[in-house]
Structure formats: C-alpha cells, structure tokens
Amino acid sequence: MIVCTLFNPVIDAFYRVDGFEPGATRLDVESRTVPAGKGLNVARVVKTLGEEAAVAGLIPKNDMRRFEAFLGDHGIKALLYEAPGVTRVNVTLHDAQAQCVTHINSASLALPVSLQEDFLRYLAGHAEPDAYWCFSGSLPSGFDDDAYARLIHEFKERGVNCLLDTRGMALRTGARAAPQIIKPNLTELQEFFQEEIKGVHHIALCGKRFVDMDVDYVFITLGQDGVIAIHGEQCLLCSTPDIKTVDTVGCGDAFAAGVMVAQKRRFAFAEMCRMAVACGSSKSMHEGPGIVTLDEVWQLMEDVEITCI
Predict the structure, then answer these.
(1) 269, 230 Cβ separation under 8 angstroms
(2) What is the crossing angle of helices 38-48 and 64-73, to 10°?
(3) Which of 10, 7, 247, 5 lies closest to 105 in space, CA to CA?
C-alpha cells in the first residue's frame, strides 16, 4: 500500500474560455470541478500504475462526502479526518485561442494547532512497517512548520519508507529529518539553500548536500530540462521525452507516484528514474492532474535518456 497525505485539499475548477477578455461576461462556459490536492493526485497515478493506494487527508466537513465518493470511484482507500469549514477552490482558465493557461490558487483558512495534533496522531495510527508514505504539498495555515519532520522521524522508526515533496520551511525542517526520498524543483532548491543555482553541476552539488544529510534518493525536477537524480555515488541527468505538452499541472505529483511505485517494486535506480520521468511526461499530455495512461508510461520509459554526471 502506498499512502499519500493530503493536508491541504482543494476543489479544482476548470473553465474553457477561448478568447478570454478581462472585464467581459461570458455565458454557458464549459467547466468541471473535481476534488484534488497533491496527495490525491499522487494516489490517482499510483492506482493507474497498478498499486494499491490510500489518501490520508484532512478534509473539511462540508466536503467530506464528496471526497469519499471521489476516492471510492477511483478505487483509492480513504483515510480521512474531519476538519471544520469548506474546501478552498483553485481556478484554471484554458484559453486555446491564446494558447494560454491561467491558474488562480486560493489561500487556505487558518486551522488550530489542536487540530494539527489530533491529525498527526491519526496519521501515526495508520503507520505500518514497510509501508510507503508520500508527504506532499503545503501545510495548512496555523500548522507548525515541522509537522512533516515530526511524522518522518516517527515513521522512520517504525520502518516506513517516506517521500517528502513540499516547499519553504516545511521542506527545510522536513529534509533534516532525512526522509528516504526528497523531490524539490529548482525554485525550491534555491529557496532551501538561499542562493542562485545555475548549471547542471551546481545543481548536482546542491543535491549531494541532501545525501550528506542521509537522504537516500534526491530528485531535482527541472521541467522540460529533465531531472537530476542522485543516489549514493550515482548522479544522473534524465531527459524528458519529445512530446506535445497539453497541461503541466500535476506533473510533479505524477513523477512522485512513479518514484514510489518503482521503489516499492525494487527497480534499479536508472529504471526508477525512467518510470518517474515517464509518469510526469504522460501527465503533461492530458488536461487535469492525476491523469496518466499505463501504455504511455511504458512507451515513454524507452524514450528517457540517462547520462551520468
């Protein structure tokens, strides 16, 4: 079982507005809304790849049934803890005429620290030896910056394999807890080390500093420029396949899913990289997060070029 945490759930609202004009009124706009959030996006890809997936989420009371139904429809186990309020909404505007996608992400409401403690205890109650947990996304307003770090410390003692994918202070404190896997992008890497990072070798040197902190696997995602992956003495530059990109939202989540599935299946390091890159690439060929196809992933794995740095 691969369990994906969802501290900051969201309802994604997608609108197709070709020829968008600020200030204008548009009627009968094509739209759809779906429950989302990084952990849920990761779990959907894990399930598509053929592994059992669960979402351990902090879900606002008014939307609990909606999230439960959505997870049930996708065959994902729901480990959901109730929070007060309603779920925040993120809006994506697709304008095919302008070949532009606009994202508007709303802020989350502040939650009490007492709820944080209850939720962390709830998560710890589901930690089992040799399980795989993905800690991804931002922490809710009101939660301590070290919430992920606390969980990683405790879960590692129980023999749980942990992946961390977050940013800011949550990344800074969480990385020092030495999860098995860490997955920053270039911006997050620069924020972590508080310096401008340029060039493949500079990025790799910074990545190796995580290895010095006892992180087993480091994946630094660079968008279309690929991924720098580090494990022990191995440092690899992984290219992305030549594909037509439709939507990049959720590519990092698909990448994380590929990493965890490959780790669970005990793939060699290079093959772990190929699967992760292929998952991110497959996701970019589809609108909306959490969407890959298994056939595409297997095909794209063959197109990932790997070079030792």
Answers:
(1) no
(2) 20
(3) 10
Instruction: Output helix, strand, coil percentages for the chain, rounded to the nearest 5.
Output: 40, 25, 35
> What is the 8-class DSSP label of residue 8?
S
Place 190 in a pLDDT band, splitting at 50, 70 and 90: very high
Domains of the chain: 2-19+30-308 (3.40.1190.20)
Rounded to 10°, the helix 251-264/269-284 angle is 150
The pLDDT score that the predictor gives to residue 297 is 97
Asked whether the predicted pLDDT for residue 173 surpasses 80, the reply is: yes
Answer for the pair 78, 72: CB distance below 8 angstroms, yes or no: yes
Q: Which two tokens stand for residue 53?
A: 């997936």
Q: What is the pTM of this model?
A: 0.93
* Contact call for residues 152 and 122 (beta carbons, < 8 A): no
**Is residue 226 over pLDDT 80?**
yes
